[in-house]
Design brief:
Pfam families: Glyoxalase_3 (PF13468). This is Glyoxalase-like domain-containing protein. The chain has six helices and 15 strands. By secondary structure, it is α+β, with helices and mostly antiparallel strands. It has two domains: 163 residues, 2,3-Dihydroxybiphenyl 1,2-Dioxygenase, domain 1, CATH 3.10.180; 108 residues, Immunoglobulin-like (Sandwich), CATH 2.60.40.4320. The protein has an eight-stranded mixed beta barrel with strand order 1-4-3-2-6-7-8-5. A hairpin with a 3-residue loop joins strand 10 and strand 11. Helix 3 packs across helix 5. 42% of the residues are buried. The N terminus is likely disordered.
Length: 303
């Protein structure tokens, strides 16, 4: 199958699946993973322990859904001031990808393939698409990453993210070297049962200024490798895949701000992710917030 962008068809060598939603990242202040876990439990999510990432700079907890997507509740283990100025630890802390991010929904990941083979490189595939369709999108080569779970299990993966200031507006890719089931504890099935009746992701809503809207839209098309399902002057929507397709596919919605509050978000946020919506069994309910990010609920149309 050849995936089609908004303007062109990609050759067979560029048809790796690069549109499977893997996880969404929510950042809270340093040392606050336990507090963030409580906040998400109060919203009706079951929160599972995560662990400490390689290098010890960050720790996380997880919220896993039966569509295979999960939330990563993450915080730095210490503020930057904890590390002596000029020390190697301080340099790593200051140059971390998320070091300058404001708390809230800061990033989202698509599923990579965990391969260092040039022919299977996610970053190379996307960069070739970007050259072909003129979007200018550029992803860094895959880098090794990992985390140690509380039970001592070591997890390994490959990460590739967009260059420049597009991180958190364009997704990064996480491809498992060790089995994904170790990273995403969907078993036993009770791990994905939530008091809120959330079953999976309905949509991720990303905001962009009118001046950058067209450029971001073109770059997202290069990343996803498939044309949008709808497009207007102020909204473009793509359909994504999930590891376990249980219900309707999640959507990625790129929009320009609709009111002063959303415009203010773009003025103060270091990410474009304004809202994450969850599919639930039951009736529609009002939107809620974490202390830092918007949460919405969308009823499942069919069970």
């Amino acid at each position: 199958m050849v995936y089609i962008s908004s303007e062109t068809e990609y050759p067979a060598k560029m048809t790796l699946n690069t549109r499977t939603l893997d996880h969404i990242v929510h950042l809270t202040p340093p040392g606050s993973v336990e507090e963030a876990s409580r906040q998400f439990r109060d919203l009706g999510f079951q929160v599972l322990p995560g662990g400490t990432h390689a290098g010890g700079l960050t720790a996380n907890a997880l919220v896993v859904f039966d569509d295979g997507v999960y939330l990563e509740l993450i915080s730095f283990t210490h503020p930057a001031s904890y590390y002596p100025p000029g020390s190697p630890e301080r340099k790593l802390r200051d140059t971390h990808t998320w070091a300058q991010k404001s708390p809230g929904w800061i990033d989202f990941a698509f599923l990579g393939n965990g391969s260092h083979k040039e022919s299977e490189s996610i970053s190379k595939t996307i960069n070739e698409r970007g050259r072909q369709d003129g979007s200018g999108v550029l992803y860094d080569p895959e880098q090794d990453g990992g985390r140690t779970r509380p039970d001592g299990q070591i997890l390994k993966w490959l990460i590739s993210g967009p260059q420049s200031d597009r991180r958190g507006v364009l997704p990064f890719f996480c491809g498992d070297v060790t089995p994904r089931s170790l990273r995403v504890p969907g078993e036993p099935p009770s791990n994905t049962v939530h008091p809120s009746a959330a079953r999976g992701i309905a949509y991720v809503r990303v905001l962009a200024n009118a001046s950058s809207f067209d450029a971001v839209s073109r770059q997202l098309t290069s990343v996803i490798g498939k044309k949008s399902i709808s497009s207007t002057d102020n909204q473009v929507v793509w359909e994504l895949d999930t590891v376990h397709k249980q219900h309707e596919s999640p959507l990625l919605r790129l929009e320009v701000p609709a009111d002063e509050e959303e415009d203010g978000f773009l003025q103060t946020s270091s990410s474009g992710i304004y809202e994450v919506a969850f599919r639930i069994k039951g009736e529609k309910r009002a939107s809620q917030t974490t202390p830092y990010g918007k949460v919405s609920w969308v009823p499942i149309e069919s069970n």
